[in-house]
Amino acid sequence: MTRRIFIAFVLLAATAWAHAAQARHYAILSLVGDRLLVVTREMSTGSRLDRNTREYVRMPDNSLDRSMVVAIDEAIRRAQPGAATTLLAPKDPSLFAAADRRIEGSGSLAEILDAVRPMVAGTDATHLVLVTRQRHAAMLRLRDGMVGSGFLEGLGFYVDHGTFARSVDTNEAERGFIAPFTYVTVSLVDLANGRVLSEERVVGSAAYTTPSYNIGNAWLALTPQQKAERLGEVMKSESARVIPLLLARS
Asked: What is the rounded CA–CA span in Å between residue 171 and residue 104?
């Protein structure tokens, strides 16, 4: 293949991809923001056994799901500028229940799609980008590697009062950290036939160390506003990372 023919082939492929993107209309639906999971790592003295404290915090509105779909929308627009999008962030408890049955092993993606189809039907969407919770072993990202115990799911915060971690700002080792996390599955579904075209599992986090004046209480390393902002940043960075992969495989 000559250089000229190769360049023509690449341009033709790019043009075909652009036309395909323009023909797509993505409905973006998040079913992860009805609650936050706060996990506190607790180590018993003289034992290697982890006894984590888990607390679910119910959210009074759908602000987390709105933040998630906005982050995905921005990532889609960067990856496929010609694509149309419709953002959905419902509060219907039955939709979240269907998503939870899947993570517990008693439900399926098909059941979730059946539950959301009436909502998507009025959008003229050709494809659905669906965000649901996934359960995964705790893997919190520190500057020196990954740490964590137990399992995490959905959106939330992992609090560790004792592990030494390096500060992002000073690179000094501090005792304790708090890590907002995003443990979700992002699925791309062809609405014409209900077929899953691609799927990405997200295990994202960012750790913030405990200042010396708050040693022993990593939860206070961030203010309430900072907690919300840092969790939003993880959602945004993970969306920017996985959406191009999701679309490229479809």
From this structure: 40
What is the number of other CB atoms lying within 10 angstroms of the CB of residue 119? 14
CB atoms within 10 A of CB 181: 29
Q: Tens of pLDDT along 51-109?
A: 789 999 999 999 999 999 999 999 999 999 989 999 998 889 999 999 999 999 888 99
Quick one: how many helices (H) and strands (E) in the chain?
A: 5, 12
* Helix H or strand E segment including 36: strand 35-41
- Residue 57 backbone zone (phi > 0: left; psi -120 to 50: alpha; other: beta): beta
Among the listed residues 136, 233, 127, 232, the one whose alpha carbon sits nearest the alpha carbon of residue 187: 127
Q: Are 126 and 24 in contact (CB under 8 A)?
A: yes
C-alpha distances (whole Å) from 150 to each of 42, 43, 50, 56, 124 are: 11, 12, 7, 15, 42
Q: What is the pTM of this model?
A: 0.84
3-state secondary structure 55-87: EEEECCCCHHHHHHHHHHHHHHHHHCCCCEEEE
Digit-coded pLDDT (tens) for 106-141: 889 999 999 999 999 889 999 999 999 999 999 998
